[in-house]
Write a structure and sequence with these properties.
alpha/beta; three-stranded parallel beta sheet; homotrimer; 9 strands
């Protein structure tokens, strides 16, 4: 892990937001590379949707794998200074200003979507990964978090829907109420693998799946979604509540205080759980 | 673990049923202390409800932690000799004679409720813990059981609703059909921790959660409950079936036989699973 | 594990399809013995249903345990050369040509049904085991698979319904999309035990359960099914889609190619996952 001497003020200005895409047979590998910390900004969100739409239209493609170019962060979370902007972007892409509905296209896609996770994956980044069909993670480095409650927010992009169904009521409440980091085991991901073998495992699985008949795959995904994927309205409602909570002055006070302490910087978020528990006011 | 030379006949007469309550900031710690074995009698049930109601009304409080003063028993189960009485108590507190609906207030509460489990937790005691938002247990001593089938009863206070959703059909059937003791891993609790660190873990988590904004917490719990908490009618139906089953002469015969063999005594229930498999008649 | 020098051509001709049944008190033990590899043919399916119907009618019986006489295979999968025939058999037994609805009787039965798994359990064999109330497996030898996607089929006999509810969306998709072998841990069975103690564990549990009052057991199973068992229509729809997919020329091409390479032979299916990933055409 290379040290990255990136200061707080650099966080927004250095944000490049790119998605490196590489096709290998019927599998498209998309590497998220948005230094300094893979914040889910307007461009990252819209680019991943655009990549998915293009892949969806290309009948030669069957599987879409998302990975990160940054060993410390898979996707951090949304850029809280741009919530208005990314909602506008989502509205342009789906007709509705909800990130959860945008991510839901990954779950409904005819493509099989896989998140290959190294480093931290928090907030809407975690919700993006949960919307993928599968999540595989590096045992040594993968760290999960729904940080929203630290600001008085709720996970607004599908986290409540996915985590409650996946983990059950009590573990989902623990993870979300604590806004703490948690590991791959508690996250209930598909598999945690040694970092050294993660890439090859995912690549091999992606090609195996891609070689099976596409029509059968679509039929299967539809049937599984009918049982386990929450309705669009549930995602919509969470999204609205997130927005409503975001207008709370206490939420805004905590956000501003966090920003002044290194929130949304590469180094500042390494120890995010501690930062969150020190925002209590008055 | 201290030896407790308490004979069978002492079980009911020595029952004191108290709840030691201690407030620490926004967290209320309630220790169940109802010697000789923390049977869930009329007073334990009603006192925990009263404690919760008072805490609910006190806006300075955010989290409620239940623990046991007895290292051998968290809560044993209901006092089967007083089923009529505790149902009357429940009716006074909630308007309905159902323990499951009484416990369901814990799940619906604006407070976050945590069960810190050491020792045995069986029957309605287990259902009380399942109604809490989270369950943390001592790895060395926590023992779980739904003992009802041993008497021809069904779990009537929410166990079926919680366990089936939490464990899935097959494990829930195993646990409930066998009426056997099972450990923390099979119980699917939040986390099993060494007894020495359990208290500090729970205390720290409780304070962490309590420091986050209360409005966001309520919004989150509502959304999670909408997905994962069974309807009141489901609890009501289980409660009715429990009562119906309790009128069966075979259930009454097995209960009487168990009572004559040390059921509802501190020492007699240490090896409860064996006792249950030796009640078969004729 | 003894070597079995059985050639491809022998697969169908040597199929004996028998079910060895032995009663021990209130428990009926049924050993599937259909050499060379316990394919789920017309007779195995109908015999297990007949055994279950007889057991159901015999009020002295409470628990039904299915095991295999072949250490390499619990139940392989359906005999794909006889899909028409076994659907006719199912129609005779239940009025509908769906194996999923046939298996669903195991889940709805007043009897407690247990699968004691050693060796491979794939396709409809796995769906048979999932329809039982509990699954216990030998840690050393149990291997699970839903192989259907390798042929462009979907699990048509309840696998989608059970696995999605049991494992959650992501793990169920992994298992079914990959058509790969998976182990007892990923399978989310009740318990994996050393092969040497599996039989005694199941026998003891079966008798324990059988000794508890039958009326309470039925009440409990009904309530658990109300929460966790999918509706008959869901099984029906999967069954129809399976049949529809089976008419696809690509599915038929892959099936024929697999048959020419040892599919449905004892030795040929030991390394089934490799065979499936080498059927891609053109």
């Amino acid at each position: 892990m290379t040290a990255r001497p990136i200061g707080k003020s650099a966080a927004n200005t250095m944000e490049l937001e790119t998605l490196h895409v590489r096709q290998d047979g019927a599998v498209l590998f998309a590497d998220i590379a948005a230094p300094p910390m893979n914040l889910l900004g307007t461009r990252t969100g819209s680019r991943s949707r655009v990549a998915e739409q293009r892949a969806e239209a290309d009948t030669a493609l069957q599987v879409l794998v998302f990975a990160s170019a940054d060993p410390d962060y898979f996707i951090s979370h949304v850029d809280v200074t741009r919530i208005g902007e990314y909602r506008e972007q989502a509205a342009k892409l789906t007709g509705e200003a909800s990130l959860g509905l945008l991510f839901r296209y990954l779950s409904k896609s005819r493509l099989v979507t896989i998140a290959q996770i190294e480093g931290r994956v928090r907030g809407a980044g975690s919700e993006f990964a949960l919307a993928c069909d599968m999540r595989f993670a590096a045992r040594e480095s993968a760290i999960f978090s729904q940080l929203e409650q630290g600001f008085g927010l709720i996970p607004g992009a599908g986290g409540i829907q996915h985590l409650t169904r996946l983990m059950g009521r009590a573990r989902a409440l623990e993870v979300m109420l604590s806004a703490d980091d948690y590991d791959a085991e508690l996250a209930g991901i598909n598999r945690a693998l040694p970092a050294a073998s993660l890439g090859e495992f995912v690549r091999s699985l992606a090609h195996r799946i891609a070689d099976f008949p596409a029509v059968g795959r679509t039929a299967l995904k539809d049937r599984v979604n009918a049982i386990s994927l929450a309705e669009a309205d549930d995602f919509r409602r969470d999204s609205d509540l997130f927005l409503e909570r975001g207008r709370d002055p206490e939420t805004q006070r905590r956000t501003a205080l966090a920003m002044s302490r290194g929130f949304q910087t590469h180094d500042g978020e390494i120890a995010l759980p501690n930062m969150l528990s020190n925002l209590v006011g008055r």
